[in-house]
Design brief:
about 230 residues, 4-stranded antiparallel beta sheet
Length: about 230
């Protein structure tokens, strides 16, 4: 009867090492896909939040801004960077937000603080959008949609209190095509939130999309391509 030779210790260790490598590659690939999905979800949720903020600014005649906050305690016990929109009250009397003049919108007490720190400043707020560790959304911080018109003002935590009637200042505060970029340390190309300066309508586009990378002039979006080339 022919005898079969068992595996030596060296062969077993070698086989285990090979299996471990394959498992590590599989886990790494899975984590990469999950991370990419989280980045995509956060990008789309920020875009959706901007659309909702604009809609509320028009329908309620109150300014609505988007804020990005670090080290926020979440219900699951983690502490993360999050973004959300805040519908700000106007007037000196926070209990009567419908009674205000142009110089009192938003309320003076609320121009330099978020509604997480001072809840009475807001009529309502949007859900927390968790920003993945591999993503930077700092550019959208303090993007404000002005009351009534929904026009956008970038880097205006005070939502242009006292300046709403000055058309030149409002126009100058509108974000340029390249100014709101979402950057990723995972190797994913940037995404750009492009906000129309007159209407506040926005769209989000990826820098690896055909519209940004094609050499076909009939299909190329020059605004997006130029924004993607910005540092």
């Amino acid at each position: 009867m022919k005898q079969t030779r068992g595996m030596t210790l060296l062969e077993i260790l070698t086989a285990l090492a090979v299996v471990s490598v394959f498992i590590a590659l599989a886990v790494g690939g899975l984590q990469g896909r999950i991370g990419g999905q989280r980045e995509s979800m956060a990008t789309r949720e920020l875009w959706s939040g901007a659309l909702r903020a604009r809609q509320l600014a028009i329908s309620t005649n109150q300014p609505v801004r988007i804020v990005v906050e670090k080290d926020v305690d979440l219900p699951d016990g983690t502490r993360r960077t999050v973004a959300r929109w805040e519908q700000l009250k106007c007037g000196d009397d926070l209990a009567n937000p419908d009674q205000w003049s142009m110089n009192q919108c938003p309320s003076t007490a609320c121009v330099a603080t978020t509604c997480r720190d001072m809840p009475d400043c807001c009529s309502t707020t949007g859900p927390d959008i968790v920003i993945p560790d591999s993503m930077s959304a700092a550019d959208i911080n303090n993007l404000c949609f002005l009351p009534g018109s929904g026009r956008p003002a970038l880097n205006k935590m005070d939502c242009m209190q006292g300046q709403l009637g000055q058309a030149a200042l409002v126009a100058a505060a509108a974000p340029k095509d390249h100014q709101i970029q979402f950057r990723f340390t995972s190797g994913r190309p940037k995404s750009v939130l492009m906000v129309e300066p007159l209407t506040g309508l926005s769209s989000v586009m990826d820098c690896d999309s055909v519209a940004a990378t094609t050499t076909d002039a009939t299909r190329k979006d020059l605004r997006l391509a130029n924004a993607c080339n910005e540092p």
